[in-house]
UniProtKB/TrEMBL annotation:
Residues 46-285 form the Serine aminopeptidase S33 domain. It comes from Rhodococcus wratislaviensis. It comes from the Bacteria. Keywords: Hydrolase. Coiled coil: none annotated. One of its GO terms (molecular function) is carboxylic ester hydrolase activity. Gene3D superfamilies: alpha/beta hydrolase. Belongs to the AB hydrolase superfamily. This is Serine aminopeptidase S33 domain-containing protein. The keyword Membrane does not apply.
Amino acid sequence: MNPRPTPVEAGRSCPDVRREDVSFTSRGQRCAAWLYRRRAETLTPAPCVVLAHGWSGVREQRLDAFAARFAAAGIAALVFDYRHFGASEGEPRQLLDIDSQLDDWDSAVAYVCTRPDIDPGRVALWGTSLSGGLVLTTAARDRRVAAVVSQVPYVDGLTNLPRLGPAGLGRMAVAYLRDRYAQLRHRPPHMFPVVGPPGSFAAMTSPDAEAGYHAMDPPGSTWRNETPGRVALQAALYRPTRTVAKIACPVFFAIADHDVVTFTRSAQKAAARTPDAEVHVYPGGHFDPYFDALFERVVADETDFLVRHLLPPAG
């Protein structure tokens, strides 16, 4: 894979945007966040889009590149780390739990809705990969959400199981049981890799997975290539596609036509079940929307969608 621009470099392309370190509380623990705003302050509360990463991802892995673009267009952007990840509180570290992360999304929305500089009637969600499914679940149960961007989304855990193959399923079951045993014995979680080369044992082993994750990772990143075995069963049973029919706001689906991580067809089926869906299919695999020319195309389309639904028309 060719060298990629780091998130810091990408953020420099938006010099009129400033970033503020903020935090909010979720279930009694602090979630670290960045709030992006245009430098030119106005007295009018701004719309806001809330962003968080996918499976084990942390905010510095290209999310700031998206947030800076949204902020430059006049939409504030809150980028946060889940509890147990990155700069946020929570022990043990790397504890990926879908219900816990959904609580963090609820807390993030509640936080921006209480800020005097944010308009609580114009709050959107942006998710990618696993969080592309989490934002669908959150919007289905929270009518405050005004718009959603769901990028290369994880929408149906059951359809993802066959890609593991019999050997992979067996190793995943062993990892789950070892971690459950560790829980019962009050020991540290049993971890296995998030990404690895094809044929290895990891949550993602597609040809582009290992290179894609490392390409997103800037120097000094807090990301760690490990995830607890207990998430295996939970992820397999997580199916946000079942609740998309309840979403009352417009949803932008950014789908990669060669996605072998979360599967193109699964995302298209979820979009077809969504009442107000805007579907864009892009050439490439699961990690391509984060980089290079495709990033420019995807972020431009997502910004246009958010502007149309969150900002009043000129005049």
